[in-house]
Amino acid sequence: MRRNTVLVLLLLAASLAAAQEPQLYGYRVVNTYPHEITAFTQGLIYRDGELWEGTGKNGLSRLARIDLESGERKQTVQLADRYFGEGIEMIGDRIYQLTWRAHMVFVYDRANLEQLETHYNAREGWGLAFDGEHLILSDGSASLQFIDPEGFVPVRAIEVTVRGQPLNLLNELEYIDGEIWANVWQTDFIVRIDPTRGVVNSIVDLTGLAARTDLGSSEAVLNGIAWDSENRRLFVTGKHWANLFEIELTEHGQ
Description:
- The protein is mainly β.
- The protein has one helix at residues 3-17; strands at residues 23-34, 41-47, 50-55, 62-66, 73-78, 85-91, 94-99, 104-109, 115-120, 128-130, 135-138, 143-148, 153-159, 161-162, 165-166, 170-176, 179-184, 189-193, 200-205, 222-228, 233-238, 243-251.
């Protein structure tokens, strides 16, 4: 395990031990769905009854529309081999997809996945979310960038902290009910972040979820958060996981 990952785990453990804040949640599995075990999940969104997934790895990166019940790809666009795909987000009829270190952002038409335009991203691309006004971008650090979606220009940034300490390795993002939810890479934790102050309000402990599915590689870690706002369903999965889970949060220990 990398040294910075150990530091993240220590920070989270210290937070959990500190009695008051942030609040700690566990989970209950509501439904289990098939997920393509070869998919190196980097971005996950659910809109209007459809699941969308962006995957990584050079030569394997793609954007796909997926049937939730079967896990089958209904529509796919493949990235060129030189690109390592990362997080995705949808604004209206447009889907944005990050790349890791190529500094490219691809924008697609939702209906036919035709590429409409590209943007330059000066940072590494990890996760992407949308708060109704700005795209929110993670780059593996403790910083989250708020981006004007028209020209993909940063307008502000926040530093994410746990009990006053920066929290690095923020990965896949989702914006839910006024909070930014973020996978913390190589851990079993999702953090829920105040988008104004950057403070972690609560931590979702998904320990044991990976044991409920088959894992396709040594890189098969938790990554992927999707929110069905209409039916208030929360979906999570991981890189090279054979299943996607619908979960409900519980008070920790229940």
